[in-house]
Amino acid sequence: MSEAKNMVVKYRRILLKLSGEVLGNHEKGECIDPTIIADVAQRIREIALMGVEVGIVLGGGNIFRGAVGEACGVARTTGDYMGMLATIINGLALQDAIENTGIQTRLQTSIDMPQVAEPFIQRRATRHFEKGRVVIFSGGTGNPYFSTDTAAALRASEIKAEVLLKATKVDGVYTADPKKDPCATRYETLSYHDALRKQLKVMDSAAFALCMDNKIPIIVFDFFDREALRQVVCGEKIGTLVTDAV
Q1: What's the sign of the alpha-carbon dihedral 207, 212, 216, 218?
Q2: Which of 18, 60, 64, 201 sits 20 to 30 Å CA-CA off 6?
Q3: pTM
């Protein structure tokens, strides 16, 4: 614990965007795997003990995706609200796992449900950070037709995060899908404009635009590399940096 506190970090306040899929186990058919979520919580604990103020936005795709539901006949608005509720379920699970590591957390939601979580209030979230708590933002933006990527960019802007960390299954942004194209190459750095112009599908255009307007750098990295999160907050060159200074 003392070693973690003594490590030099580059980013003091971050917004970590996690997909819902990182919490599940496809082999077991479990949308939320207690062993996996406990491991995720340990990695978040590690950087919290380093003095990093951690905000988290979770997706809900391990439970339900509005766009998938629409393809099966579910009204888009209905499906999106179902997806928002799925992010709250994920948020409750992650909150419990992080608190089991001894780190205090608060769950805030854009959908009013006082028996379950606090409403999102920017000043209250900031106060939680000042007290060393991890804050999980769930319920997306609270509106249909917006992804959790956009919610992450919005919350990062509101809490004045120094960086938005986008955790994925690959180690950065590539010229093409590296699983389909063996010739695909990884970008070390990328401008917001190029990411939008080339329609690189790591985050949606609204999320990129929000970060660009508010000058929030985005780092896309492989969450399944267990050391990557710690390395990123310490300023090591991991993944792809999306910024306006390219």
Answers
A1: positive
A2: 18
A3: 0.92
